[in-house]
Design a protein that fits this description.
Keywords: Hydrolase. Helix content is about 30%, strand content about 20%. By secondary structure, it is of the alpha/beta class. It binds aspartic acid.
Length: about 325
């Protein structure tokens, strides 16, 4: 019964210059007006006090394992507070492996607790409401900030400082918190969860590079990648295009490792068979690249690494991207 709240680091826990150490989960929740009045039993635990940008796949899978145990033992839902910088990636990682109906809710803050209009308390209150909302059950991992509920699958951090930074450009929010009530407008389709506990050595070895294609890109940085990485995500122009001269290099890499084609634009899918010039999506797919559909480069990298860590081969990987892209 109740909610397990796992406190990581991030702005929500930063006390401000000269104000001492990071705030603990208990200190964060004590500062939330109206939380006690909700009457939700909270089991608050401090996990990794690191900035969002320093989290690792292994650390976050440990967080998911703690949350999963808590739900198996009867918690109605989970709230994770963390730095917002990597939140769109950790949320998707959790979503891919989360096997429960209970909501796995991630939140954070854009303003430090001592700042005027600090958003952490409102975000924690909203996150606890969503974690216990019957309407949010079965929706997987959700990102709750600014009184909006976003699907982990679609959410992006779109602004470096705004409290309205989290948005889902392809879909909009799944729901809103209105007058303290959770109003879910949509529940996204769920897929079979991937293995939540991949072998740690395999996870470590499953290094996936991300290459953002730029004007006049000769792909020089990709030299020797097959020796250091097990997979590559390419963030191409527009619908999934690269300079013609780069296409053979990507094709050669695709003979050694899965190479996934995404768009660097921030929303919309890559195409499959509309353009045919060298470096176009049709050309790249013919050279063995896997298209990511609507998955953005960061989320594609999370999925690819998890699949490689689970021992998936090229065909399984292409199938997984066809299903989830
Ligand atoms: N740099 C911070 C972090 O991700 C930003 C935040 O929490 O909003 O830890």
């Amino acid at each position: 019964m109740g909610v397990v709240l796992l406190a990581l680091g991030g702005t929500i826990s930063v006390p401000g210059r000269g104000r001492g150490a990071r705030l603990s989960g208990a200190e964060i929740t004590a500062a939330v007006p109206g939380l006690t009045e909700l009457g939700v039993p909270l089991d608050v635990r401090d996990v990794q006090a690191v900035p969002g940008g320093s989290l690792t796949f292994a650390q976050f899978l440990d967080v998911v394992a703690i949350a999963s145990r808590a739900v198996a033992e009867g918690a109605d839902g989970v709230v994770v507070t963390q730095g917002t910088d990597s939140l769109e990636e950790t949320a998707f990682l959790a979503d891919l492996v989360w096997p429960h109906e209970a909501p796995f809710v991630l939140t954070g803050a854009m303003r430090q607790p001592a700042m005027a209009g600090a958003d952490g308390p409102a975000n924690v209150l909203a996150a606890v409401r969503v974690a216990t909302a019957p309407e949010a059950r079965g929706a997987g991992a959700l990102v709750v900030l600014n009184d909006e509920v976003h699907a982990a699958r679609w959410v992006r951090k779109t602004h470096s400082t705004s409290t309205a930074t989290f948005a889902s450009p392809n879909t909009g929010p799944l729901g809103h918190i209105v007058e303290g009530r959770v109003r879910m407008l949509l529940i996204p389709p769920r897929h079979e969860p991937l293995p939540a506990g991949p072998d740690r050595k395999r996870l470590e070895d499953a290094r996936v590079a991300l290459h953002v294609v730029t004007l006049d890109d000769d792909g020089d940085r990709l030299q020797g990648l097959e020796a250091t990485h097990r997979g590559l995500v390419v963030a191409g122009f527009g619908v999934g295009h690269v300079p013609g001269a780069l296409a053979p290099r990507l094709g050669a890499l695709a003979e050694h490792m899965p190479v996934v084609l995404t768009s660097r634009t921030g929303s919309g899918p890559v195409l499959r068979h509309t353009y045919s010039a060298p470096g176009s999506e049709t050309d790249l797919r013919r050279r063995g690249l896997i298209d990511s559909g609507f998955l953005d480069p960061y989320k594609a990298r999370v999925l690819l690494r998890l699949l490689l860590a689970a021992g998936a081969g090229r065909d399984d990987i292409a199938e997984a991207f066809a299903l989830r892209g």
